[in-house]
Inverse folding.
């Protein structure tokens, strides 16, 4: 319980701390990135691992790593070491942390239908990792204090709730007054479509999975709640996705859905999934 409190404390207090650090945020290149981004990401990663179990299915991990790393090679920050972590949880969620960490729950594999949908979810998180906030350099000196504050923060959010809040923080919505959460999400969508096209994945996969998330008849609605809170879907988002999609160089390109490969790689985790 103490570990959960610490994780929630760090994730919840970061937005208020970053908001207090006034100033302009901008994108910087990897060559100018300080080691703090990676230290901060590692600290958050360790806390996540203490609150949520990791999936050790070798075949599935190799499969996700191969897709994620291929997509990451198309990203602007191509020198960042991207790490793809599968968390054991029946709920449908994905997020990321500074330093190249991308997380996806086992619950997502029951919702996804094929490889291009998985590529779309991973590509979106990679897109969100292209932004850095230089004010993160001021976080290290208060990291220990934030951990100590954990004893006074209620553990009511739970592990997935904490990951949902983390999604808000690392996107930069709280710290960056220039761009709204929706703008950051939409820009990451556009990047994701580009990564998918360059890597040989049909960008329609991202649009398909997002559309299905809004199905009012879906039995998975309750399991999507936290993901949709940190990755809101709106008609404006779809409008911009459609505009970007029609500008992609898709002439004479043939894509495969990768359904059989996806079903084979995820068979064990889908069959053994027990939802909480």
């Amino acid at each position: 319980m103490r570990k959960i409190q610490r994780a929630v404390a760090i994730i919840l207090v970061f937005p208020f701390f970053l908001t207090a650090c006034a100033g302009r945020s901008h994108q910087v290149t990897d060559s100018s990135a300080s080691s703090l981004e990676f230290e901060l990401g590692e600290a958050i990663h360790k806390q996540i691992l203490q609150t949520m179990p990791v999936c050790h299915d070798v075949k599935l991990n190799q499969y996700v790593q191969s897709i994620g790393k291929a997509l990451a090679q198309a990203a602007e920050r191509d020198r960042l070491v991207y790490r793809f972590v599968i968390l054991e949880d029946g709920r449908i969620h994905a997020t990321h942390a500074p330093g190249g960490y991308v997380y996806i729950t086992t619950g997502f594999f029951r919702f996804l239908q094929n490889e291009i949908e998985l590529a779309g979810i991973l590509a979106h998180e990679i897109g969100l990792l292209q932004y850095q906030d230089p004010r993160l350099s001021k976080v290290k000196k208060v990291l220990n204090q934030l951990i100590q504050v954990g004893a006074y923060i209620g553990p009511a959010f739970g592990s997935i709730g904490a990951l949902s809040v983390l999604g808000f923080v690392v996107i930069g919505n709280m710290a960056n007054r220039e761009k709204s959460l929706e703008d950051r999400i939409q820009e990451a969508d556009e990047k994701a479509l580009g990564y998918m096209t360059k890597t040989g994945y049909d960008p329609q996969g991202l649009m398909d999975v997002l559309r299905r998330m809004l199905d009012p008849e879906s039995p998975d609605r309750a399991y999507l709640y936290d993901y949709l809170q940190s990755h809101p879907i709106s008609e404006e988002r779809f409008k911009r996705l459609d505009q970007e999609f029609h500008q992609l160089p898709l002439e004479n390109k043939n894509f495969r859905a990768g359904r059989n490969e996806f079903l084979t790689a995820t068979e064990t985790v889908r069959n053994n999934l027990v939802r909480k």
Observations:
- The longest strand covers residues 83-87.
- The first helix runs from residue 2 to 20.
- Confidence is low (pLDDT under 50) at residues 1-33, 140-157, 167-177.
